[in-house]
Amino acid sequence: MATSTSRWWALAALSLSTIAIGLDSTVLSVALPTLAGDLAASTGDLQWFTTSYLLVLAAALLPAGMLGDRFGRKRMLLGALILFGAASAACSYAATSGQLVAARAVLGLGAAVIMPLSSAVLTVIFEPHERGRALTVWVTANTLGIPLGPLVGGYLLDHFWWGSVFLINVPLVIAGIVAVALWVPESHGDRQRRFDPLGVVLSAAGLVALMYGIIEAGERGWTDARSLVTTAAGLVLLAAFAWWQRRAQAPLVDLALFRSRGFTGGSLLATIASFAMFGLLFALPLFFQEVGGHDAFGTGLRLLPVIGGLMVGARIGGRLEARLGARVIVTAGLVLIAGGLLLGTATGPRSGYGFVAAWISLAGVGLGLTMPPAMNAALGALSRERSGVGSGLIQAMRQVGGAIGVAVLGTVLNAVYRDGLDGSRLPGAARESVSAGVAAAGRLGDPGLLDVVRSAFTDGMSVTMLVAAAVAMCGAVLSMLFLPGRPARPAGAPDVPLAPASPPAAAESTV
Length: 511
Known about the structure:
By secondary structure, the protein is an all-alpha fold.
């Protein structure tokens, strides 16, 4: 086990890595208009700048966790950070849309290794009584990059060329490489365990098809045939993956984990929280920019109360979890998320920022109460030998939950927005998005039409907040049913016996 001081420095190194990933997930949205002009990128190109990253990320999460368990988590983390930094530099100097799509795909591969292994290392270097605090820091760092994306990206675009929004990752990655090399101890899982090539192929293909189908449904609507077929194919492939995992001699994922209330409940509730968070962060930037008239930098500033609330909630939850247990804390967090979102349904075109800041802060407190204990419950059910692939499974579920959140809530928002424009004199192009609607009303020079567009958007946002609040309340009920009503058990001691572990000699750790 690492020394008391060094493991907290190791946590700082892992947090730096996750900030870079969170930053990259939102900074691109600020640069899309500039990329459309400078790279002569079509609408399809712009979509693939994001989609290529997400699809590779989804495909590689489970294999990356398995490889970390087998070959060493520190070694894989260092390689992934180097890859992430090199891909960021390649994005910055891409001369064509195709080059940028390829560089973004490599960026997704690096992120797919960093995400599960950074959380897996926490289960190795921190004892259960400290893991809650460590996860609070890690989750906060993971989320901090999201509002920082438009904040940093807006500033850089105002002062430098578009490539700077990707180049900003490089100093973060360099600092992360140095810190990981100095303070993160090496650890392994079962080095003798055989590969499961069919499991890798089925999981990767299933997650890619499911994610692509959801992304396409968000763009084309849930009645689009290609979206439905792709989503269905993804579900079939994942069902085949689950069937194979029950029969494989050395399965990629031990499905007995799902008999653990801590793992199943924690993973499910972290996924539900990701649904609510990504849905919230999908609508708010549009509200601040198109309804409030703020630039990207101002939008990033106005999103900071979410992070402030998350930090407060995580601190309170960390103090109370040991006494009250994860069930009480996570349930309270999801109820607060739902309460904040329900308040958000009252937001209109002329709502003051004070009101908006209040309800997004409340939702942030709920996220802070929910995420660290839910993740701790799930990670606490993992043995140290298989924490890499187990963490990959948790992260894959969160990614799918976030993608579904954006797609479903985006579809709801767009449907209500378009209905709100019925009967107006706005051209058909205004129905594509609130940005197009604001631009069309501006060209017509009619303040009344601008009010119609903004009212239609806030009506749509209110319905999306209502849907997200309902999902959060369902999560609160599931929390009462699934999470254990006592503090999380130590790592390696799940609620139910899992498949026999490998002999101690085969599962070595040099921590």
